[in-house]
């Protein structure tokens, strides 16, 4: 099966850093503000969001502190000229402003970047022959502590009675065999209600992602990739029902019946 490519007539203006920052500004400006009226509103949500983004973009944990010193000494900083931050909040203020914002509020930025890549023809180089795209599913832990925790933390009780608190997220990405980079798609955060085991948590998050985002990406021609955790009939069927294909790892130790049939078939064929 082949899928249409984007023609030159359909191309939009090229993606630029300035355009991406402006889209991020619009996205952050629309964040819900949970501060009560009358509170000190020196810092806006867009300043908090752009400040946080600048740290990840520059890959420097001390970037904002250095920018604050630049403002004190030179009355201007790279955070202002590059990222358009008007007032730089401290780390605690950023957390206070952004912690209550639901992850789904960032979705417009993902849509903007993906549509820009698609409309400018960049996604064509990620297509695997004429079969569409490979979408890899995997979960990751982005916070863990035995002391610091919140109401949204997942918990794991160890044999010695200690508890580990963590936050985990499903991170779907488009990948290709000849590409060292991946294209990140909207993540799905794993919630406390998803289950007590890694399999329950990650699979339930994957089901939510498929229901929410499948219609946006599956028409492009998607083959899902995943480890043994995803290789179970209900989720495989959900992928097929959504109109996609899958390649999931299948370990003999966790799929004993399938492995037995496969081994028997191979033995008969070789005989």
**Mind summarizing the main beta sheet?**
5 strands, mixed
Strand content: 5-15%
User: Low-confidence parts, pLDDT < 50 over ≥5 residues?
Assistant: 1-11
Q: What is the helical fraction, as a range of percent? A: 40-55%
User: What number is the mean pLDDT?
Assistant: 85
Computed Rg: 23 Å
* Strand and helix order: HHHHHHEEEEEEEHEHEH
Number of helices: 9
Strand order of the largest sheet: 6-5-1-8-9
| Mass-distribution shape | globular
Given helix and strand content, the structural type is: alpha+beta
* Strand segment tally: 9
Q: Calculate the terminal CA-CA distance, rounded to whole Å.
A: 36 Å
Protein name: Transposase
Organism: Thiothrix subterranea
Describe the protein.
A 5-stranded mixed β-sheet has the order 6-5-1-8-9, with helices on one face. Strands 2, 3, 4 and 7 form a 4-stranded antiparallel β-sheet that branches. The chain has helices spanning 17-29, 45-58, 63-74, 78-83, 91-98, 107-119, 198-217, 233-241, 256-270, and strands at 133-136, 139-145, 154-157, 163-170, 173-175, 183-184, 188-189, 222-226, 245-248. It is 41% helix and 14% strand. The chain is globular and about 70 Å long. The two termini are 36 Å apart. It is built from 9 helices and 9 strands. Helix 1 packs antiparallel against helix 6. It is of the alpha+beta class. This is Transposase. It comes from Thiothrix subterranea.
Task: Please sum up the structure shown.
The chain has helices at 17-29, 45-58, 63-74, 78-83, 91-98, 107-119, 198-217, 233-241, 256-270; strands at 133-136, 139-145, 154-157, 163-170, 173-175, 183-184, 188-189, 222-226, 245-248. With 271 residues, it is of the alpha+beta class.
């Amino acid at each position: 099966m082949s899928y249409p490519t984007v023609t030159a007539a359909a191309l939009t203006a090229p993606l630029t850093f300035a355009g991406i920052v402006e889209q991020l500004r619009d996205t952050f400006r629309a964040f819900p503000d949970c501060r009560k009226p009358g509170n000190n509103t020196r810092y806006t949500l867009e300043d908090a969001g752009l400040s946080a983004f600048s740290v990840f973009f520059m890959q420097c944990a001390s970037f904002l502190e250095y920018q604050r010193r630049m403002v004190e000494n030179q009355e201007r900083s790279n955070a202002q000229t590059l990222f358009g931050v008007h007032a730089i909040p401290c780390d605690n203020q950023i957390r206070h402003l952004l912690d209550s914002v639901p992850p789904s509020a960032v979705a417009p930025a993902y849509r903007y970047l993906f549509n820009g890549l698609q409309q400018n023809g960049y996604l064509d180089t990620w297509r695997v022959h004429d079969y569409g795209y490979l979408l890899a599913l995997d979960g990751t832990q982005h916070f863990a502590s035995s002391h610091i925790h919140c109401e949204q933390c997942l918990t794991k009780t160890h044999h010695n009675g200690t508890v580990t608190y963590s936050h985990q997220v499903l991170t779907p990405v488009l990948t290709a065999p000849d590409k060292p980079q991946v294209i990140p798609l909207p993540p799905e955060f794993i919630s406390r209600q998803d289950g007590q085991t890694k399999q329950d948590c990650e699979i339930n998050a994957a089901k939510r992602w498929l229901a929410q985002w499948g219609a946006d990406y599956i028409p492009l021609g998607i083959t899902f990739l995943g480890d043994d955790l995803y290789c179970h009939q209900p989720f495989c069927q959900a992928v097929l029902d959504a109109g996609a294909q899958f390649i999931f790892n299948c370990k003999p130790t966790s799929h004993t019946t399938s492995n037995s049939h496969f081994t028997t078939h191979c033995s008969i064929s070789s005989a």
